[in-house]
Amino acid sequence: MFGALTDKLQSLFSSLTGKKTLTEENISDAVRQVRLALLDADVNYSVVSDFVKRVKEKSIGDAVLKSVSPGDQFTKLVHDELIELMGSVESPLDLQARLSVVMVCGLQGSGKTTSCAKLAAYIGKTEKNKRVLLAACDLQRPAAVEQLKKLGADLAVPVFTLDGEASPVKVAKKAYEKAEAEGFDVLIVDTAGRLHLDEELMKELELLKSQLSPREVLFVANATTGQDAVRTAAEFDKRVQITGTILTMLDGNARAGAAISIREVTKKPLKFEGIGEKIGDLQIFNPRSMADRILGMGDIINLVKKAQENFDEAQSAELEKKMLKATFTYEDYLRQMGMVKKMGSFKSLLKMMPGFSSMEGFEFSDKEFTKLEAMILSMTVAERQEREELSFSRRKRIAGGSGVHVDEVNRMVKGFKRVKQLFKSMPNMKAQASKMGLGDIKKQIEGFKKWR
Ligand SMILES: Nc1nc2c(ncn2[C@@H]2O[C@H](COP(=O)(O)OP(=O)(O)O)[C@@H](O)[C@H]2O)c(=O)[nH]1
Ligand SMILES: [Mg+2]
Questions:
Q1: Which of 252, 376, 379, 446 is the most buried (most CB within 10 A)?
Q2: Which domains does the chain have, with CATH numbers?
Protein backbone atom coordinates (compact mmCIF):
# COMPACT_ATOMS: atom_id res chain seq x y z
CA MET A 1 0.00 0.00 0.00
CA PHE A 2 2.72 2.43 0.97
CA GLY A 3 5.27 0.76 -1.26
CA ALA A 4 8.18 3.18 -1.18
CA LEU A 5 7.97 4.22 2.45
CA THR A 6 7.57 0.65 3.56
CA ASP A 7 10.56 -0.49 1.52
CA LYS A 8 12.78 2.24 2.86
CA LEU A 9 11.88 1.73 6.47
CA GLN A 10 12.29 -2.00 6.12
CA SER A 11 15.78 -1.79 4.70
CA LEU A 12 16.66 0.75 7.34
CA PHE A 13 15.47 -1.55 10.09
CA SER A 14 17.28 -4.52 8.68
CA SER A 15 20.51 -2.53 8.44
CA LEU A 16 20.18 -1.77 12.14
CA THR A 17 19.50 -5.38 12.97
CA GLY A 18 23.12 -6.27 12.38
CA LYS A 19 24.35 -3.70 14.89
CA LYS A 20 25.25 -4.83 18.38
CA THR A 21 24.14 -1.72 20.17
CA LEU A 22 22.34 1.46 19.36
CA THR A 23 24.91 4.18 19.61
CA GLU A 24 24.10 7.82 19.36
CA GLU A 25 25.80 7.75 16.00
CA ASN A 26 23.81 5.02 14.37
CA ILE A 27 20.62 6.34 15.91
CA SER A 28 21.28 9.70 14.32
CA ASP A 29 21.80 7.96 11.04
CA ALA A 30 18.66 5.88 11.41
CA VAL A 31 16.60 8.83 12.53
CA ARG A 32 17.83 10.86 9.59
CA GLN A 33 16.73 8.12 7.27
CA VAL A 34 13.31 7.84 8.89
CA ARG A 35 12.98 11.56 8.41
CA LEU A 36 13.84 11.35 4.71
CA ALA A 37 11.55 8.40 4.19
CA LEU A 38 8.62 10.23 5.77
CA LEU A 39 9.26 13.44 3.87
CA ASP A 40 9.52 11.44 0.71
CA ALA A 41 6.18 9.89 1.45
CA ASP A 42 4.73 13.36 1.53
CA VAL A 43 4.24 13.64 5.25
CA ASN A 44 3.83 17.19 6.42
CA TYR A 45 7.18 18.80 7.24
CA SER A 46 6.47 19.93 10.77
CA VAL A 47 4.83 16.61 11.55
CA VAL A 48 8.01 14.88 10.47
CA SER A 49 10.21 17.15 12.55
CA ASP A 50 8.24 16.53 15.72
CA PHE A 51 8.09 12.86 14.98
CA VAL A 52 11.81 12.31 14.52
CA LYS A 53 12.56 14.43 17.54
CA ARG A 54 10.42 12.18 19.70
CA VAL A 55 11.86 9.02 18.18
CA LYS A 56 15.39 10.23 18.73
CA GLU A 57 14.87 11.25 22.33
CA LYS A 58 13.20 7.99 23.14
CA SER A 59 15.63 5.77 21.31
CA ILE A 60 18.64 7.26 23.00
CA GLY A 61 17.02 6.88 26.38
CA ASP A 62 16.12 3.36 25.41
CA ALA A 63 19.58 2.39 24.29
CA VAL A 64 20.99 3.26 27.66
CA LEU A 65 18.60 0.90 29.32
CA LYS A 66 19.02 -2.13 27.09
CA SER A 67 21.29 -2.95 24.26
CA VAL A 68 19.60 -6.08 22.98
CA SER A 69 18.46 -6.33 19.39
CA PRO A 70 18.78 -2.65 18.57
CA GLY A 71 17.09 -3.03 15.21
CA ASP A 72 13.97 -4.54 16.75
CA GLN A 73 14.03 -1.99 19.48
CA PHE A 74 14.15 0.84 17.03
CA THR A 75 11.48 -0.71 14.81
CA LYS A 76 9.21 -1.03 17.78
CA LEU A 77 9.83 2.54 18.78
CA VAL A 78 9.00 3.89 15.33
CA HIS A 79 5.97 1.62 15.24
CA ASP A 80 4.72 2.86 18.61
CA GLU A 81 5.28 6.46 17.66
CA LEU A 82 3.45 6.01 14.38
CA ILE A 83 0.51 4.53 16.24
CA GLU A 84 0.46 7.48 18.57
CA LEU A 85 0.72 9.89 15.70
CA MET A 86 -2.35 8.38 14.13
CA GLY A 87 -4.39 8.57 17.30
CA SER A 88 -3.58 5.33 19.17
CA VAL A 89 -7.10 3.95 19.32
CA GLU A 90 -10.05 3.40 17.04
CA SER A 91 -12.52 6.22 17.03
CA PRO A 92 -16.04 4.97 16.49
CA LEU A 93 -18.91 7.06 15.16
CA ASP A 94 -20.80 9.12 17.66
CA LEU A 95 -24.44 8.18 17.20
CA GLN A 96 -25.58 8.98 20.70
CA ALA A 97 -28.32 11.44 19.81
CA ARG A 98 -31.88 10.26 19.40
CA LEU A 99 -31.49 11.32 15.79
CA SER A 100 -27.80 11.59 14.95
CA VAL A 101 -26.89 13.61 11.88
CA VAL A 102 -23.71 12.67 10.06
CA MET A 103 -22.63 15.33 7.58
CA VAL A 104 -20.15 14.20 4.96
CA CYS A 105 -18.00 16.80 3.23
CA GLY A 106 -14.91 17.13 1.07
CA LEU A 107 -13.71 17.97 -2.39
CA GLN A 108 -15.31 16.65 -5.55
CA GLY A 109 -14.34 13.11 -6.38
CA SER A 110 -12.91 12.41 -2.95
CA GLY A 111 -15.44 9.65 -2.39
CA LYS A 112 -18.17 11.41 -0.38
CA THR A 113 -21.21 9.86 -2.00
CA THR A 114 -19.69 6.40 -1.98
CA SER A 115 -18.66 6.86 1.64
CA CYS A 116 -22.20 7.90 2.62
CA ALA A 117 -23.50 4.61 1.27
CA LYS A 118 -20.63 2.67 2.82
CA LEU A 119 -21.37 4.28 6.17
CA ALA A 120 -25.04 3.36 5.90
CA ALA A 121 -24.02 -0.23 5.22
CA TYR A 122 -21.50 -0.15 8.05
CA ILE A 123 -24.09 1.13 10.54
CA GLY A 124 -26.54 -1.45 9.27
CA LYS A 125 -24.03 -4.14 10.09
CA THR A 126 -22.66 -2.86 13.39
CA GLU A 127 -25.77 -1.26 14.90
CA LYS A 128 -28.58 -3.44 13.77
CA ASN A 129 -31.25 -1.59 15.73
CA LYS A 130 -30.50 1.77 14.12
CA ARG A 131 -32.48 2.92 11.08
CA VAL A 132 -30.61 5.07 8.62
CA LEU A 133 -31.89 7.68 6.19
CA LEU A 134 -29.63 9.07 3.48
CA ALA A 135 -30.13 12.64 2.27
CA ALA A 136 -28.98 13.69 -1.19
CA CYS A 137 -27.85 17.28 -0.68
CA ASP A 138 -25.32 17.52 -3.49
CA LEU A 139 -27.33 19.58 -5.93
CA GLN A 140 -24.30 20.74 -7.88
CA ARG A 141 -23.88 17.70 -10.02
CA PRO A 142 -27.14 16.50 -11.53
CA ALA A 143 -25.94 12.91 -11.41
CA ALA A 144 -25.06 13.02 -7.72
CA VAL A 145 -28.65 12.56 -6.54
CA GLU A 146 -29.14 9.63 -8.90
CA GLN A 147 -25.88 8.08 -7.75
CA LEU A 148 -26.94 8.13 -4.10
CA LYS A 149 -30.42 6.90 -4.98
CA LYS A 150 -28.95 3.92 -6.74
CA LEU A 151 -26.52 3.13 -3.94
CA GLY A 152 -29.35 3.41 -1.40
CA ALA A 153 -31.60 1.16 -3.47
CA ASP A 154 -28.89 -1.51 -3.64
CA LEU A 155 -28.60 -1.38 0.13
CA ALA A 156 -32.33 -1.07 0.79
CA VAL A 157 -31.63 2.15 2.68
CA PRO A 158 -34.08 4.96 1.92
CA VAL A 159 -32.71 8.08 0.22
CA PHE A 160 -34.39 11.43 0.71
CA THR A 161 -34.50 13.68 -2.36
CA LEU A 162 -36.49 16.74 -3.34
CA ASP A 163 -37.07 17.04 -7.06
CA GLY A 164 -36.72 20.54 -8.40
CA GLU A 165 -35.33 22.00 -5.18
CA ALA A 166 -32.14 23.99 -5.68
CA SER A 167 -31.22 24.70 -2.09
CA PRO A 168 -29.29 21.97 -0.29
CA VAL A 169 -30.22 23.50 3.05
CA LYS A 170 -33.92 23.12 2.27
CA VAL A 171 -33.44 19.52 1.22
CA ALA A 172 -31.48 18.82 4.38
CA LYS A 173 -34.14 20.42 6.57
CA LYS A 174 -36.92 18.41 4.97
CA ALA A 175 -34.85 15.26 5.27
CA TYR A 176 -34.37 15.98 8.96
CA GLU A 177 -38.10 16.53 9.44
CA LYS A 178 -38.85 13.25 7.74
CA ALA A 179 -36.23 11.41 9.77
CA GLU A 180 -37.66 12.83 12.97
CA ALA A 181 -41.27 12.17 12.06
CA GLU A 182 -40.58 8.62 11.01
CA GLY A 183 -38.31 7.68 13.87
CA PHE A 184 -35.03 7.24 12.03
CA ASP A 185 -31.93 7.06 14.24
CA VAL A 186 -29.28 8.30 11.84
CA LEU A 187 -29.40 10.84 9.02
CA ILE A 188 -26.40 10.77 6.69
CA VAL A 189 -26.13 13.91 4.60
CA ASP A 190 -24.20 13.87 1.33
CA THR A 191 -22.99 17.32 0.31
CA ALA A 192 -21.60 18.94 -2.81
CA GLY A 193 -17.90 19.19 -3.42
CA ARG A 194 -15.83 21.45 -5.62
CA LEU A 195 -12.68 20.77 -7.51
CA HIS A 196 -10.86 23.19 -5.24
CA LEU A 197 -11.55 24.92 -2.00
CA ASP A 198 -13.97 27.72 -2.60
CA GLU A 199 -15.81 30.28 -0.61
CA GLU A 200 -19.28 29.47 -1.88
CA LEU A 201 -18.89 25.84 -0.93
CA MET A 202 -17.68 26.69 2.54
CA LYS A 203 -20.60 29.05 3.12
CA GLU A 204 -23.03 26.37 2.02
CA LEU A 205 -21.47 23.87 4.39
CA GLU A 206 -21.49 26.34 7.28
CA LEU A 207 -25.14 26.96 6.69
CA LEU A 208 -25.93 23.26 6.48
CA LYS A 209 -24.05 22.68 9.66
CA SER A 210 -25.82 25.42 11.56
CA GLN A 211 -29.20 24.06 10.46
CA LEU A 212 -28.50 20.40 11.16
CA SER A 213 -26.35 20.46 14.31
CA PRO A 214 -24.65 17.29 13.16
CA ARG A 215 -23.22 14.84 15.63
CA GLU A 216 -20.48 14.07 13.14
CA VAL A 217 -18.93 16.22 10.44
CA LEU A 218 -16.76 13.82 8.50
CA PHE A 219 -14.18 15.09 6.08
CA VAL A 220 -13.54 12.73 3.19
CA ALA A 221 -9.93 12.76 2.02
CA ASN A 222 -8.58 11.12 -1.08
CA ALA A 223 -5.40 9.64 0.33
CA THR A 224 -3.70 9.58 -3.04
CA THR A 225 -3.57 13.37 -3.12
CA GLY A 226 -0.97 13.63 -0.36
CA GLN A 227 -0.29 17.12 0.95
CA ASP A 228 -3.27 18.58 -0.86
CA ALA A 229 -5.56 16.44 1.24
CA VAL A 230 -3.86 17.73 4.37
CA ARG A 231 -4.25 21.38 3.42
CA THR A 232 -7.86 20.82 2.46
CA ALA A 233 -8.57 19.02 5.72
CA ALA A 234 -7.17 21.95 7.69
CA GLU A 235 -9.38 24.38 5.77
CA PHE A 236 -12.56 22.34 6.21
CA ASP A 237 -11.77 21.96 9.86
CA LYS A 238 -11.37 25.69 10.27
CA ARG A 239 -14.71 26.38 8.63
CA VAL A 240 -16.97 23.56 9.76
CA GLN A 241 -15.04 21.98 12.65
CA ILE A 242 -14.83 18.43 11.42
CA THR A 243 -15.19 15.62 13.94
CA GLY A 244 -13.09 13.16 11.99
CA THR A 245 -11.75 12.02 8.65
CA ILE A 246 -12.56 9.21 6.26
CA LEU A 247 -9.50 8.34 4.20
CA THR A 248 -10.42 6.94 0.81
CA MET A 249 -8.57 5.28 -2.06
CA LEU A 250 -6.24 3.49 0.29
CA ASP A 251 -6.41 0.56 -2.09
CA GLY A 252 -4.63 2.67 -4.70
CA ASN A 253 -1.00 3.58 -4.42
CA ALA A 254 -1.67 6.04 -1.64
CA ARG A 255 1.31 7.72 -0.16
CA ALA A 256 1.28 7.48 3.58
CA GLY A 257 1.53 11.23 3.94
CA ALA A 258 -2.14 11.97 4.19
CA ALA A 259 -2.87 9.22 6.66
CA ILE A 260 -0.12 10.34 8.94
CA SER A 261 -0.49 14.08 8.67
CA ILE A 262 -4.22 14.77 8.64
CA ARG A 263 -4.79 13.71 12.18
CA GLU A 264 -1.76 15.55 13.44
CA VAL A 265 -2.70 18.73 11.60
CA THR A 266 -6.42 18.75 12.44
CA LYS A 267 -6.14 16.99 15.80
CA LYS A 268 -9.31 15.17 14.78
CA PRO A 269 -9.36 11.39 14.60
CA LEU A 270 -9.08 9.32 11.47
CA LYS A 271 -12.33 7.41 11.73
CA PHE A 272 -12.65 5.23 8.65
CA GLU A 273 -10.70 4.05 5.69
CA GLY A 274 -12.03 3.27 2.23
CA ILE A 275 -10.18 0.43 0.59
CA GLY A 276 -12.11 -0.10 -2.62
CA GLU A 277 -15.11 0.85 -4.68
CA LYS A 278 -17.46 -1.73 -3.27
CA ILE A 279 -19.91 -0.90 -0.51
CA GLY A 280 -18.23 -3.31 1.88
CA ASP A 281 -14.84 -1.69 1.34
CA LEU A 282 -14.95 0.55 4.39
CA GLN A 283 -13.43 -0.25 7.71
CA ILE A 284 -12.93 1.53 10.95
CA PHE A 285 -9.51 3.16 11.01
CA ASN A 286 -7.18 1.31 13.33
CA PRO A 287 -3.94 3.21 14.03
CA ARG A 288 -2.08 0.09 15.05
CA SER A 289 -3.01 -1.80 11.94
CA MET A 290 -2.15 1.21 9.78
CA ALA A 291 1.26 1.45 11.45
CA ASP A 292 1.78 -2.24 10.75
CA ARG A 293 1.00 -1.65 7.11
CA ILE A 294 3.23 1.39 6.82
CA LEU A 295 6.10 -0.53 8.32
CA GLY A 296 5.29 -3.51 6.19
CA MET A 297 4.35 -5.85 8.97
CA GLY A 298 1.21 -6.97 7.32
CA ASP A 299 -2.19 -6.32 8.61
CA ILE A 300 -3.11 -9.22 10.75
CA ILE A 301 -5.98 -7.44 12.49
CA ASN A 302 -7.83 -6.62 9.32
CA LEU A 303 -6.89 -9.87 7.73
CA VAL A 304 -8.41 -11.82 10.57
CA LYS A 305 -11.50 -9.62 10.71
CA LYS A 306 -12.11 -9.95 7.01
CA ALA A 307 -11.32 -13.59 6.79
CA GLN A 308 -13.69 -14.34 9.63
CA GLU A 309 -16.48 -12.68 7.73
CA ASN A 310 -15.78 -14.73 4.65
CA PHE A 311 -14.82 -18.13 5.88
CA ASP A 312 -16.83 -20.91 7.23
CA GLU A 313 -14.73 -21.58 10.28
CA ALA A 314 -15.66 -25.16 10.92
CA GLN A 315 -15.14 -26.05 7.32
CA SER A 316 -11.73 -24.47 7.10
CA ALA A 317 -10.58 -26.05 10.35
CA GLU A 318 -11.50 -29.43 8.99
CA LEU A 319 -9.78 -28.70 5.71
CA GLU A 320 -6.66 -27.69 7.46
CA LYS A 321 -6.56 -30.83 9.54
CA LYS A 322 -6.81 -32.82 6.36
CA MET A 323 -4.09 -30.85 4.70
CA LEU A 324 -1.76 -31.36 7.58
CA LYS A 325 -2.41 -35.06 7.46
CA ALA A 326 -2.02 -34.88 3.70
CA THR A 327 -5.29 -36.64 3.07
CA PHE A 328 -6.14 -33.60 1.04
CA THR A 329 -8.15 -34.62 -2.01
CA TYR A 330 -9.18 -32.91 -5.22
CA GLU A 331 -12.59 -32.35 -3.65
CA ASP A 332 -10.96 -30.52 -0.77
CA TYR A 333 -8.94 -28.51 -3.25
CA LEU A 334 -12.09 -27.48 -5.02
CA ARG A 335 -13.73 -26.50 -1.77
CA GLN A 336 -10.73 -24.47 -0.79
CA MET A 337 -10.62 -22.66 -4.09
CA GLY A 338 -14.32 -21.99 -3.62
CA MET A 339 -13.50 -20.23 -0.37
CA VAL A 340 -10.79 -18.21 -2.02
CA LYS A 341 -13.25 -17.12 -4.65
CA LYS A 342 -15.83 -16.20 -2.03
CA MET A 343 -13.47 -13.71 -0.51
CA GLY A 344 -14.60 -10.94 -2.78
CA SER A 345 -11.88 -8.44 -2.08
CA PHE A 346 -9.16 -10.98 -1.73
CA LYS A 347 -6.86 -8.81 -3.72
CA SER A 348 -7.17 -5.80 -1.52
CA LEU A 349 -6.71 -8.10 1.43
CA LEU A 350 -3.49 -9.49 0.07
CA LYS A 351 -2.13 -6.05 -0.54
CA MET A 352 -2.27 -5.41 3.16
CA MET A 353 0.31 -8.07 3.76
CA PRO A 354 4.03 -7.58 3.40
CA GLY A 355 5.64 -8.92 0.28
CA PHE A 356 2.44 -9.14 -1.64
CA SER A 357 2.88 -6.36 -4.11
CA SER A 358 3.84 -9.01 -6.64
CA MET A 359 0.34 -10.38 -6.24
CA GLU A 360 -1.19 -7.36 -7.83
CA GLY A 361 -3.29 -8.43 -10.71
CA PHE A 362 -4.05 -11.76 -9.12
CA GLU A 363 -7.64 -12.54 -9.62
CA PHE A 364 -9.43 -15.78 -9.32
CA SER A 365 -12.42 -15.27 -11.50
CA ASP A 366 -15.73 -17.06 -11.50
CA LYS A 367 -14.85 -18.36 -14.93
CA GLU A 368 -11.64 -19.95 -13.77
CA PHE A 369 -13.37 -21.46 -10.83
CA THR A 370 -16.07 -22.89 -13.05
CA LYS A 371 -13.38 -24.49 -15.20
CA LEU A 372 -11.64 -25.97 -12.20
CA GLU A 373 -14.93 -27.26 -10.94
CA ALA A 374 -15.77 -28.82 -14.30
CA MET A 375 -12.44 -30.64 -14.37
CA ILE A 376 -12.67 -31.98 -10.85
CA LEU A 377 -16.27 -33.02 -11.29
CA SER A 378 -15.25 -34.92 -14.42
CA MET A 379 -12.99 -37.09 -12.32
CA THR A 380 -14.11 -40.34 -10.78
CA VAL A 381 -14.36 -40.55 -7.02
CA ALA A 382 -11.26 -42.75 -6.92
CA GLU A 383 -9.35 -40.21 -8.99
CA ARG A 384 -10.45 -37.33 -6.82
CA GLN A 385 -9.15 -39.14 -3.79
CA GLU A 386 -5.92 -40.08 -5.54
CA ARG A 387 -6.59 -43.79 -5.25
CA GLU A 388 -6.14 -43.98 -8.99
CA GLU A 389 -3.12 -42.62 -10.86
CA LEU A 390 -4.06 -39.96 -13.43
CA SER A 391 -2.70 -41.58 -16.57
CA PHE A 392 -2.64 -39.74 -19.86
CA SER A 393 -5.79 -41.45 -21.10
CA ARG A 394 -7.60 -40.54 -17.91
CA ARG A 395 -6.47 -36.95 -18.27
CA LYS A 396 -7.72 -36.90 -21.83
CA ARG A 397 -11.07 -38.22 -20.68
CA ILE A 398 -11.27 -35.53 -17.99
CA ALA A 399 -10.38 -32.83 -20.52
CA GLY A 400 -13.08 -34.10 -22.85
CA GLY A 401 -15.60 -34.29 -20.03
CA SER A 402 -14.98 -30.75 -18.91
CA GLY A 403 -14.43 -29.15 -22.30
CA VAL A 404 -10.84 -28.03 -21.75
CA HIS A 405 -7.52 -28.88 -23.33
CA VAL A 406 -5.52 -31.64 -21.72
CA ASP A 407 -2.75 -29.12 -20.91
CA GLU A 408 -5.19 -27.40 -18.64
CA VAL A 409 -5.80 -30.65 -16.80
CA ASN A 410 -2.06 -31.12 -16.43
CA ARG A 411 -1.70 -27.66 -14.97
CA MET A 412 -4.58 -28.23 -12.61
CA VAL A 413 -2.99 -31.47 -11.35
CA LYS A 414 0.29 -29.65 -10.80
CA GLY A 415 -1.44 -26.87 -8.90
CA PHE A 416 -3.19 -29.37 -6.70
CA LYS A 417 0.02 -31.26 -5.97
CA ARG A 418 1.88 -28.10 -5.17
CA VAL A 419 -0.72 -26.96 -2.68
CA LYS A 420 -0.86 -30.38 -1.12
CA GLN A 421 2.91 -30.57 -0.87
CA LEU A 422 2.96 -27.14 0.62
CA PHE A 423 0.72 -28.11 3.46
CA LYS A 424 2.67 -31.25 4.13
CA SER A 425 5.88 -29.32 4.53
CA MET A 426 4.49 -26.49 6.52
CA PRO A 427 5.40 -26.80 10.18
CA ASN A 428 5.84 -23.07 10.64
CA MET A 429 2.50 -21.83 9.50
CA LYS A 430 1.82 -18.36 10.73
CA ALA A 431 -0.35 -18.62 13.78
CA GLN A 432 -3.04 -16.21 12.65
CA ALA A 433 -3.24 -17.48 9.15
CA SER A 434 -3.46 -21.00 10.40
CA LYS A 435 -6.40 -20.11 12.59
CA MET A 436 -8.25 -19.07 9.52
CA GLY A 437 -7.30 -22.13 7.61
CA LEU A 438 -5.37 -20.08 5.13
CA GLY A 439 -2.03 -21.62 5.77
CA ASP A 440 0.76 -19.73 4.18
CA ILE A 441 -1.37 -17.77 1.79
CA LYS A 442 1.48 -16.49 -0.23
CA LYS A 443 2.77 -19.89 -1.19
CA GLN A 444 -0.73 -21.11 -1.68
CA ILE A 445 -1.46 -18.33 -4.11
CA GLU A 446 1.73 -19.14 -5.93
CA GLY A 447 0.41 -22.65 -6.30
CA PHE A 448 -2.85 -21.30 -7.68
CA LYS A 449 -1.03 -18.91 -9.96
CA LYS A 450 1.12 -21.63 -11.43
CA TRP A 451 -1.93 -23.70 -12.10
CA ARG A 452 -3.28 -20.85 -14.11
N1 LIG B 1 -10.63 2.55 -5.43
C2 LIG B 1 -11.46 3.27 -4.69
N3 LIG B 1 -12.38 4.01 -5.29
C4 LIG B 1 -13.21 4.74 -4.54
C5 LIG B 1 -13.14 4.73 -3.13
N6 LIG B 1 -14.10 5.57 -2.68
C7 LIG B 1 -14.73 6.05 -3.75
N8 LIG B 1 -14.20 5.57 -4.89
C9 LIG B 1 -14.55 5.88 -6.28
O10 LIG B 1 -14.19 7.22 -6.54
C11 LIG B 1 -15.10 7.84 -7.43
C12 LIG B 1 -15.66 9.12 -6.84
O13 LIG B 1 -16.43 8.80 -5.72
P14 LIG B 1 -17.71 9.63 -5.27
O15 LIG B 1 -18.26 8.99 -4.06
O16 LIG B 1 -18.65 9.83 -6.40
O17 LIG B 1 -17.00 11.01 -4.90
P18 LIG B 1 -17.66 12.39 -4.49
O19 LIG B 1 -17.59 13.28 -5.69
O20 LIG B 1 -16.82 12.91 -3.37
O21 LIG B 1 -19.06 12.12 -4.03
C22 LIG B 1 -16.17 6.80 -7.71
O23 LIG B 1 -15.88 6.19 -8.93
C24 LIG B 1 -16.02 5.82 -6.56
O25 LIG B 1 -16.44 4.53 -6.94
C26 LIG B 1 -12.12 3.92 -2.50
O27 LIG B 1 -11.97 3.86 -1.27
N28 LIG B 1 -11.33 3.22 -3.33
MG1 LIG C 1 -20.78 12.95 -4.65
A1: 379
A2: 3-85 (1.20.120.140), 100-292 (3.40.50.300), 305-451 (1.10.260.30)
